[in-house]
Amino acid sequence: xxxxxxxxxxxxxxxxxxxxxxxxxxxxxxxxxxxxxxxxxxxxxxxxxxxxxxxxxxxxxxxxxxxxxxxxxxxxxxxxxxxxxxxxxxxxxxxxxxxxxxxxxxxxxxxxxxxxxxxxxxxxxxxxxxxxxxxxxxxxxxxx
Length: 144
What we know:
Blueprint: E1 10-11, E2 17-22, E3 43-48, E4 54-59, E5 64-70, E6 78-83, E7 86-91, E8 97-103, E9 112-121
Parallel strand pairs: 1-3
Antiparallel strand pairs: 2-9, 3-8, 4-7, 4-9, 5-6, 5-8
Protein backbone atom coordinates (compact mmCIF):
# COMPACT_ATOMS: atom_id res chain seq x y z
CA UNK A 1 0.00 0.00 0.00
CA UNK A 2 1.15 3.57 -0.64
CA UNK A 3 1.06 4.39 3.10
CA UNK A 4 2.93 1.26 4.22
CA UNK A 5 5.74 3.21 5.88
CA UNK A 6 5.50 6.03 8.42
CA UNK A 7 7.34 8.37 6.04
CA UNK A 8 4.60 7.73 3.45
CA UNK A 9 1.67 8.44 5.78
CA UNK A 10 -1.63 9.53 4.26
CA UNK A 11 -2.64 12.91 5.72
CA UNK A 12 -6.06 13.41 7.28
CA UNK A 13 -6.76 16.90 6.00
CA UNK A 14 -10.31 17.46 7.29
CA UNK A 15 -12.82 15.84 9.62
CA UNK A 16 -14.99 13.86 9.55
CA UNK A 17 -12.65 11.51 7.68
CA UNK A 18 -13.22 8.10 6.17
CA UNK A 19 -10.67 6.01 4.27
CA UNK A 20 -10.94 2.61 2.70
CA UNK A 21 -7.55 0.98 3.13
CA UNK A 22 -5.80 -2.34 3.13
CA UNK A 23 -3.07 -4.06 5.10
CA UNK A 24 -2.69 -6.63 2.31
CA UNK A 25 0.92 -6.44 1.14
CA UNK A 26 1.98 -4.15 4.01
CA UNK A 27 5.42 -4.79 5.46
CA UNK A 28 6.14 -5.34 9.15
CA UNK A 29 6.54 -2.28 11.38
CA UNK A 30 9.38 -3.74 13.45
CA UNK A 31 10.37 -0.39 14.95
CA UNK A 32 6.92 0.14 16.53
CA UNK A 33 7.09 -2.90 18.80
CA UNK A 34 6.84 -0.71 21.94
CA UNK A 35 3.21 0.34 21.50
CA UNK A 36 1.63 -3.07 21.74
CA UNK A 37 2.33 -3.74 18.07
CA UNK A 38 3.80 -7.14 17.46
CA UNK A 39 7.20 -7.01 15.83
CA UNK A 40 5.71 -8.48 12.68
CA UNK A 41 2.48 -6.43 12.72
CA UNK A 42 1.89 -5.30 9.16
CA UNK A 43 0.29 -1.87 9.16
CA UNK A 44 -0.44 1.30 7.25
CA UNK A 45 -0.11 4.91 8.39
CA UNK A 46 -2.29 8.04 8.60
CA UNK A 47 -1.54 11.36 10.28
CA UNK A 48 -3.53 14.33 11.56
CA UNK A 49 -2.59 17.73 13.01
CA UNK A 50 -5.57 19.49 14.63
CA UNK A 51 -5.76 23.29 14.62
CA UNK A 52 -7.55 23.34 17.98
CA UNK A 53 -7.99 21.11 21.03
CA UNK A 54 -10.61 18.50 20.14
CA UNK A 55 -12.01 15.15 21.14
CA UNK A 56 -11.49 12.54 18.41
CA UNK A 57 -13.24 9.24 17.91
CA UNK A 58 -11.25 6.95 15.65
CA UNK A 59 -12.42 3.51 14.59
CA UNK A 60 -11.70 0.59 12.29
CA UNK A 61 -13.61 -2.66 11.76
CA UNK A 62 -13.38 -5.43 14.35
CA UNK A 63 -10.67 -7.34 12.43
CA UNK A 64 -8.25 -4.42 12.84
CA UNK A 65 -6.88 -2.17 15.55
CA UNK A 66 -4.95 1.08 15.62
CA UNK A 67 -2.25 2.74 17.66
CA UNK A 68 -1.72 6.48 18.10
CA UNK A 69 1.71 8.13 18.27
CA UNK A 70 3.06 11.67 18.69
CA UNK A 71 6.55 13.02 18.19
CA UNK A 72 8.75 15.14 16.01
CA UNK A 73 8.98 12.65 13.15
CA UNK A 74 8.87 8.99 12.23
CA UNK A 75 12.19 8.31 13.97
CA UNK A 76 10.97 10.01 17.18
CA UNK A 77 7.50 8.50 17.67
CA UNK A 78 6.15 8.06 21.18
CA UNK A 79 3.25 5.74 21.89
CA UNK A 80 0.19 7.69 23.00
CA UNK A 81 -2.47 4.99 22.81
CA UNK A 82 -2.57 1.28 22.01
CA UNK A 83 -6.21 0.94 21.09
CA UNK A 84 -8.71 -1.62 19.98
CA UNK A 85 -11.08 -1.01 17.10
CA UNK A 86 -12.61 2.23 18.45
CA UNK A 87 -11.77 4.88 21.01
CA UNK A 88 -12.33 8.54 21.89
CA UNK A 89 -9.43 10.66 23.16
CA UNK A 90 -8.29 14.29 23.51
CA UNK A 91 -5.89 15.82 20.98
CA UNK A 92 -4.03 19.13 21.34
CA UNK A 93 -3.83 21.84 18.72
CA UNK A 94 -0.78 21.88 16.44
CA UNK A 95 0.44 18.46 17.63
CA UNK A 96 0.92 15.85 14.92
CA UNK A 97 -0.68 12.47 15.57
CA UNK A 98 0.22 9.30 13.66
CA UNK A 99 -2.20 6.36 13.39
CA UNK A 100 -0.88 2.86 12.65
CA UNK A 101 -3.70 0.54 11.49
CA UNK A 102 -2.91 -3.19 11.70
CA UNK A 103 -4.75 -6.50 11.74
CA UNK A 104 -6.07 -7.46 15.17
CA UNK A 105 -3.65 -10.38 15.34
CA UNK A 106 -0.23 -10.80 13.78
CA UNK A 107 -1.32 -14.33 12.80
CA UNK A 108 -3.97 -13.01 10.40
CA UNK A 109 -3.37 -12.09 6.78
CA UNK A 110 -3.79 -8.50 5.62
CA UNK A 111 -7.20 -7.35 4.48
CA UNK A 112 -9.30 -4.33 3.59
CA UNK A 113 -10.73 -2.00 6.23
CA UNK A 114 -12.54 1.30 6.72
CA UNK A 115 -10.86 3.88 8.99
CA UNK A 116 -13.06 6.66 10.41
CA UNK A 117 -12.10 9.74 12.42
CA UNK A 118 -14.68 12.16 13.83
CA UNK A 119 -14.03 15.31 15.91
CA UNK A 120 -16.02 16.81 18.76
CA UNK A 121 -15.62 20.07 20.63
CA UNK A 122 -14.17 19.74 24.11
CA UNK A 123 -16.99 20.44 26.61
CA UNK A 124 -16.62 23.75 28.46
CA UNK A 125 -16.68 21.92 31.81
CA UNK A 126 -14.19 19.23 30.83
CA UNK A 127 -11.77 20.10 33.63
CA UNK A 128 -12.54 20.25 37.34
CA UNK A 129 -11.58 23.96 37.43
CA UNK A 130 -14.31 24.62 34.83
CA UNK A 131 -17.14 23.08 36.84
CA UNK A 132 -20.60 24.39 36.04
CA UNK A 133 -22.47 25.27 39.23
CA UNK A 134 -25.82 23.75 40.16
CA UNK A 135 -27.82 26.80 41.23
CA UNK A 136 -30.91 25.04 42.59
CA UNK A 137 -32.59 21.68 42.93
CA UNK A 138 -34.09 19.85 41.19
CA UNK A 139 -31.51 20.25 38.45
CA UNK A 140 -31.58 19.21 34.83
CA UNK A 141 -28.88 19.81 32.24
CA UNK A 142 -28.51 19.06 28.56
CA UNK A 143 -24.95 18.53 27.52
CA UNK A 144 -22.41 16.40 25.78
